[in-house]
Amino acid sequence: MRHATPLALVAALLLSAATGVQADRRKSLDDAVSEARSRYPGRVLSAETDRRGGRESYRIRILTDDGRVKRLRIDSESERRPSSR
Questions:
Q1: Please, what is the end-to-end C-alpha distance for the chain in angstroms?
Q2: Sequence-ordered strand ranges (E) for the chain
Q3: Distances, alpha carbon 85 to alpha carbons 13, 69, 71, 82, in Å
Q4: Strands 69-75 and 42-52
Q5: Band of the pLDDT at 78, cuts 50, 70, 90?
Q6: Where are the domains of the chain?
Q7: For 49-74, how does the pLDDT look when each residue is reduced to its tens digit (9 = 90+)?
Q8: How far apart (Å, rounded) are the C-alpha atoms in residues 57 and 77?
């Protein structure tokens, strides 16, 4: 019984550390803008956070070097490439 308390403490610490690592995997708005600019070089017209259905994504508009406006949506938790219109 003496070993149950330290074991429970270690388990709690490991669980909280795993949760912290998972939270750190989310992209910031700056990361999303950098990702968008690497795909479509040009000037960023707007970048904002969008929260829908409990998920967070970023909406980014870029004026490309050839004069087109690209609208991108980048999920903050996904590693997938951004969707564009």
A1: 62
A2: 42-52, 55-64, 69-75, 83-84
A3: 44, 9, 5, 10
A4: unpaired
A5: confident
A6: 26-84
A7: 999 888 899 999 999 999 999 999 99
A8: 8
Residues in the chain: 85
Q: Please name the helix (run of DSSP H) or strand (run of DSSP E) that holds residue 7, with its range, or none.
A: helix 4-23
Nearest Cα residue to 27 out of 80, 77, 83, 81 = 77
H/E stretch holding 34 reads: helix 29-39
Token pair for 5: 């308390």
Residue tagged 């479509």 (tokens):
40
Rounded to two decimals, what is the model's pTM? 0.63
Tokens of 57: 């994504």
Q: Give the domain 26-84 fold.
A: Nuclear Transport Factor 2; Chain: A, (3.10.450)
